[in-house]
Amino acid sequence: MAIKKNGKIAILNHARNILYIGNVCVELNSFKVDKSFSLRLRESDIHAVRFSSFAGTIVATGQKDVYIYTENRELQRTIENPTGCGYIASVAINHITKHTLLKINLSPYCSLLSFSETGESRNSVYLGSSEWIQRAGLKSHPKSPVALVGKTRAVLLQL
Fold first, then answer.
1. Residues 108, 41: Cα–Cα separation, whole Å
2. Cα 150 from Cα 40, distance rounded (Å)
3. pLDDT digits over 11-27, tens only?
4. Which of 7, 21, 26, 40 is most buried, by the most CB atoms less than 10 A from its CB?
C-alpha cells in the first residue's frame, strides 16, 4: 500500500496483480476506488508499491524488475536488475536528478545501481556486506538527495 499526503491511496492485490487507486473517506472510515488496473508484469512477486512526487507516478517493485506507471495506467518504463543476480531490496527516486536508485542484495553483499530518467544504467557502487547495510533501505524526499537509512545510521547518496 502507498499513501500520499493528499489522501490518495494505492493498494495492490498481490493474488491478481491489480492496483487500486483511490481516496480516503475519513467520515465513513473507508476507501473510495477511483481507478483500478491490472499490472502488466513479467514477474508476479511485486513486494512494494509507492507514489513518486513526479506528476502521478507509481513505482511497483518486484525482486528482479521495477515498473514505473502513470496514474492513467500507462507503463512508462521497466528497469531490470542488470546483474541478474540477487534481488531488488529497495528502490528510491532521486527527485533532484530524476535518477532511479536500486539497492540490490546478493547475500551477503549489497550494491547500489543508478538509472537515468529513461532507464539507462548510470552508476554502480559496491556497498559492502555489513549488517547495517544489508538491513538498510533507500529513502527519498522531494527536495533532498536519496539516503540509505538503517536503524542507527544514515548516509546521503549523491547519485
1. 28
2. 32
3. 877 777 787 888 877 66
4. 21
Q: Which tens digits make up the pLDDT trace of 97-145?
A: 888 899 999 888 999 999 988 888 899 999 999 999 999 999 887 778 8
CA-based Rg of the chain, rounded to a whole angstrom? 16
Q: Would you list the domain boundaries of the chain?
A: 2-156
CA-CA distance, 51 to 63, in Å (whole number)? 18
Grid cell in block for residue 88: 531488488
For 139, counting Cβ atoms within 10 Å of its Cβ (0-12 exposed, 13-18 middle, 19+ buried), the class is: middle
Give the total residue count for the chain.
159
Q: Find out whether the peptide bond into 108 is cis, omega within 30 degrees of 0.
A: yes
